[in-house]
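Inverse folding, one chain.
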């Protein structure tokens, strides 16, 4: 029983940290640009596919494959921001509709380019870590460690760098930030590319654990949306709390009861949060006009 419990926690943390990466990027784009980006999961898919091609098919070194996959996906995100999303900054409804269109374009382009067959990626590390008789696969621990490193790095960037402070200022009030000399025309694409990079990195981490196909982006996008509703739209700490909560609920319910109950519990949590604390667990109330 202890082994099953420990394994369930590790699985929950692994999935939860991936959800955290997805949700942070999702909530950053909304918090700064006021766009609900339903194409977010497709950048996760592109990152996973590029890593599968570079590392799995062409056998490039792991670090090089990660940098190229995340960098190329970030470049795609920059192009999408400049061509499409910049016209919808602050326009939540039209921005959301445009993001659905971008998602369909990216997904079908991937389908035409790479086909519909799932691909597998060889594991980055093999073997297990044994602690007190409980066995943890290194392939899953690497996902957790990689995601923690990414979240800590992002926290340092947002909290202690000039561009991070500028992003926080724009998220609070873009007009006042502009008056203070902050170049919002630079901050908006920078925030979007950062969010896309987090999604691509999540795809890279998950590619060796799960199979890769053009259809893997939808589920993480929906999870990210659920998580930011729970944690609070625009709240990075809320995305962390919500992601870990959803990951553990999914793992425990799926292991001890059924996957169907997992989905029910997740949406019961969402409904409870919306009813009792509409701004989310760590979100702020919108000021009334």
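Residues assigned per position:
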């Amino acid at each position: 029983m202890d082994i099953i419990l420990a394994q369930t926690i590790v699985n929950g943390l692994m999935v939860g940290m991936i959800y955290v990466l997805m949700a942070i990027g999702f909530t950053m784009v909304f918090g700064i640009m006021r766009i609900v980006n339903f194409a977010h999961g497709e950048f996760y898919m592109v990152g996973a596919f590029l890593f599968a091609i570079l590392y799995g098919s062409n056998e490039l070194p792991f670090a090089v494959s990660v940098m190229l996959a995340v960098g190329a996906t970030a470049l795609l995100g920059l192009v999408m921001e400049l061509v499409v999303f910049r016209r919808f900054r602050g326009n939540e409804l039209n921005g959301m509709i445009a993001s659905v269109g971008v998602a369909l374009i990216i997904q079908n382009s991937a389908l035409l380019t790479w086909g519909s067959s799932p691909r597998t990626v060889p594991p980055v590390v093999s073997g297990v870590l044994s602690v007190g008789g409980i066995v943890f696969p290194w392939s899953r621990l690497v996902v957790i460690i990689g995601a923690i490193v990414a979240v800590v790095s992002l926290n340092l960037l947002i909290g202690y760098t000039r561009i991070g402070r500028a992003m926080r200022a724009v998220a609070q009030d873009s007009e006042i930030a502009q008056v203070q000399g902050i170049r919002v025309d630079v901050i908006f694409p920078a925030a979007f590319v950062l969010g896309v990079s987090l999604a691509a990195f999540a795809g890279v981490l998950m590619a060796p654990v799960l199979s890769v196909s053009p259809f893997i982006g939808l589920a993480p996008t929906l999870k990210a949306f659920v998580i930011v509703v729970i944690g609070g739209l625009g709240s990075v700490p809320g995305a962390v709390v919500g992601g870990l909560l959803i990951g553990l609920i999914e793992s425990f319910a799926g292991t001890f009861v059924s996957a169907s109950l997992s989905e029910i519990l997740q949406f019961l949590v969402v409904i409870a949060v919306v009813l009792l604390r509409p701004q989310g667990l760590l979100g702020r109330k919108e000021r009334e006009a």
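The first strand starts at residue 128 and ends at 131. Strands lie at 128-131, 134-137.
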